[in-house]
């Protein structure tokens, strides 16, 4: 179970790093996010949810993380993408790119902290 949790978390980290690079490129090029970007964000979210689901099962089975902050960072990481999308609503395209970049960087930081606390 632990290996599955780690694998899903590693996938989420890779996808989030791609999301950061892509969102920063969109910001620098002053472009709007398209369907491929949305697909990357969706796969990143799914990888995070998969890791969180396996982690929750592990927690319920009594396998607690080394650091209690791991659970807090996991909850925050699971909420970053939805919060970013909600924050983007009704904003002009250039502001959307900025919100995406900030949200992606925050997500990557949280995922890195999850690896440190897990």
- Helix and strand sequence: HHHH
Q: What can be said about the biggest beta sheet?
A: none
Rg, Å, rounded: 15 Å
Number of helices, where a helix is a run of at least 4 consecutive DSSP H or I residues? 4
Helix content: over 70%
Number of E-state strands: 0
Net shape: elongated
Low-confidence stretches: none
* Average residue-wise pLDDT: 93
Q: Into which percentage range does the β-strand content fall?
A: under 5%
The helix/strand class is mainly alpha
N- and C-termini, Cα separation: 14 Å
Give a verbal description of the structure.
With 118 residues, the chain is an all-alpha fold. Helices cover 84% and strands 0% of the residues. Helix 1 packs antiparallel against helix 4 (93-117) and helix 2 (35-60) packs antiparallel against helix 3 (69-88). The longest helix is centred in the N-terminal third of the chain and has 28 residues, at 2-29. The model has no long low-confidence stretch (mean pLDDT 93).
Can I get a quick summary?
The protein is mainly alpha-helical and 118 residues long.
List the defining traits of the structure above.
118 residues, mainly alpha
Layout: helices, strands, pairs:
Layout: H1 2-29, H2 35-60, H3 69-88, H4 93-117
């Amino acid at each position: 179970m632990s290996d599955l949790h780690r694998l899903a978390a590693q996938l989420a980290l890779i996808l989030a790093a791609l999301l950061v690079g892509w969102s920063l490129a969109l910001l620098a090029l002053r472009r709007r996010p398209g369907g491929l970007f949305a697909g990357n964000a969706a796969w990143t979210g799914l990888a995070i949810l998969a890791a969180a689901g396996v982690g929750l099962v592990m927690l319920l089975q009594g396998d607690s993380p080394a650091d209690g902050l791991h659970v807090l960072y996991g909850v925050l990481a699971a909420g970053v993408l939805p919060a970013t999308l909600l924050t983007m609503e009704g904003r002009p395209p250039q502001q959307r790119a900025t919100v995406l970049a900030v949200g992606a960087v925050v997500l990557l930081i949280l995922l890195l902290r999850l690896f440190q606390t897990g």
